[in-house]
Design a protein that fits this description.
single chain, signal, Chalcone isomerase, Cytochrome_P460, alpha+beta, Cytochrome_P460_sp, Cytochrome P460 domain-containing protein
């Protein structure tokens, strides 16, 4: 029974990988994949578990929420570093707006980006096992903006497997 469940998990993981990573037999990423890494926005990510909030100061002035797939959430809960392959984190970013109902509060305004980090140490060995994607209105941003992802993570959070977000209590 355990072996059968392991087989089902392996097949499910492969199916998820095929859906999330661009890896057509031709090696050409789909049009909606991020440049450099070929990461796409994962299906169903809005139903993933909440990891933590974040707030960016001006000039970005954004509210952000980080979601994780089951593999990432389990790693966070156990304090597992480095994150295991198959971990996926999605950051939703919104312009911060003043609440019209309650003056001291701010609320999410317009969506600015969806950012995705995918852990696959075999596919992304040159970026410490992580692939990155930044999307505006569902479309990937240009390669120059993706080049900044890795350098910022390497420069600031290498001791936390290159991940900024901590699990919110």
């Amino acid at each position: 029974m355990k072996l059968a469940l392991l087989g089902v998990f392996a097949i499910s993981s492969l199916a998820l990988s095929a859906a999330v990573f661009s890896s057509a037999a031709s090696g050409v990423p789909p049009e909606n994949a991020s440049p450099i890494y070929g990461v796409t926005i994962p299906d169903g990510y809005r139903d993933w578990k909440f990891i933590a909030p974040a707030q960016e100061a001006p000039p970005l002035d954004e509210l952000r929420a980080v979601l994780g797939n089951d593999i990432a959430v389990e790693a966070y809960k156990k304090g597992t570093l480095p994150f295991p392959d198959g971990s996926i984190l999605v950051k939703l970013a919104y312009k911060r707006e003043q609440s019209t109902e309650f003056a001291p509060a701010t609320v999410p305004g317009a969506s600015t980006t969806v950012q995705v980090m995918v852990k696959d140490s075999k596919k992304y060995p040159d970026s410490h096992g992580w692939g990155f994607g930044r999307f505006v209105n569902g479309k990937p941003v240009d390669a120059a903006q993706h080049e900044t992802c890795l350098s910022c993570h390497v420069g600031n959070v290498k001791d936390h497997d290159f991940v900024f977000t901590r699990y919110a209590p």
